[in-house]
Amino acid sequence: MKRPRLLIFGGTRDARQICVMMDIAGIDYGLSVATPTGAQQAAGIRGEIVIGRMEAEDMIEYLRQQGTDMVIDASHPYAERLSQNIVRACQKLTIPLVRYLRPSEIDAVEHPLIHKVVTIGQACEVAVNLGTRILLTTGSKQLADYVSHLKGKTVLARVLPTADVLAACESCGLSVDQIFALKGPFSADFNRAFYQFCRAEVVITKESGEQGGFKAKVEPCLSLGLPCIVICRPHLRFSGAGIQQAYGLEQMAPFLAVFSAKTANQPER
């Protein structure tokens, strides 16, 4: 008999912390990330790192080939399509799925300067009436959508310092004065100084939780009197046979304990 194998999806800090928990527990696992950057961030984990985006059919084939016994979706809270594909693949193969949910901090911030919206379009509609220099701390994936909605404004983008991301910024027409290539996490003090340095008049961010430095992005806005537009998380439903949810790292421990027990009772492959 083979040892049970677990696959984690996600290039987030949460996913990497779950990998560390796996390493401590001695669990046989793999980590699936979309890009080489995600693999770089996960350097040092013991599990196998799989690089490349997968659609549902790709996942089904990979999970079947690997003989995966359990999946953890620790992807970014805004990665809707990825999470939906993971659900389809796991249900097709009847593989147990644990959806890791990063704790939210959105209810802890209420202030006249904070504007909560649900779409990029809504964020831009609010932003155009609040200032000219608009700072995005939302990543590069949907940068083109922001630029198209914010014509006539000076769009400032804080993004990861990789060649692909910088090329995406340039393809959207951003100049070197509009691109700030930096890797977090950033403290509140750093963000405060950064907002002042780039002369931001409005900040657009996401409800990224503690792992994404949400409060560290919002609090400096309040102290500087800057409007902060927060794109709230999509309300994804995760229900069905074989699907369980874990809110935060502490709730992951029981799932890993059960899986570790299964591992201990099986011989090495």
Question: How would you characterize this protein structure?
Answer:
The chain has ten helices and twelve strands. It is an alpha/beta fold and 269 residues long. It folds into two domains: 5-103 and 234-265, 3-Layer(aba) Sandwich (Rossmann fold), CATH 3.40.50; 106-231, Rossmann fold (3-Layer(aba) Sandwich). The strands form two sheets. It has a six-stranded parallel β-sheet, with helices on both faces. It has a six-stranded parallel β-sheet with strand order 6-11-10-7-8-9, sandwiched between helices. The chain starts with 5 loop residues before the first strand and ends in a 5-residue tail after the last helix. Keywords: Cobalamin biosynthesis, Oxidoreductase. This is Cobalt-precorrin-6A reductase. One of its GO terms (molecular function) is precorrin-6A reductase activity. Pathway: Cofactor biosynthesis; adenosylcobalamin biosynthesis.
Describe the structure concisely for a colleague.
Pfam families: CbiJ (PF02571). This protein has 269 residues and is of the alpha/beta class. The chain has ten helices and twelve strands.
Write the layout of secondary structure elements.
Elements: E1 6-9, H1 13-25, E2 29-33, H2 36-41, E3 48-51, H3 56-66, E4 70-73, H4 80-93, E5 97-101, E6 114-117, H5 120-127, E7 133-136, H6 143-149, E8 154-159, H7 163-171, E9 179-181, H8 188-197, E10 202-206, H9 214-224, E11 228-231, E12 243-247, H10 252-264
Parallel strand pairs: 1-2, 1-4, 2-3, 4-5, 5-12, 6-11, 7-8, 7-10, 8-9, 10-11
Helix pairs in contact: 1-10, 3-4, 8-9
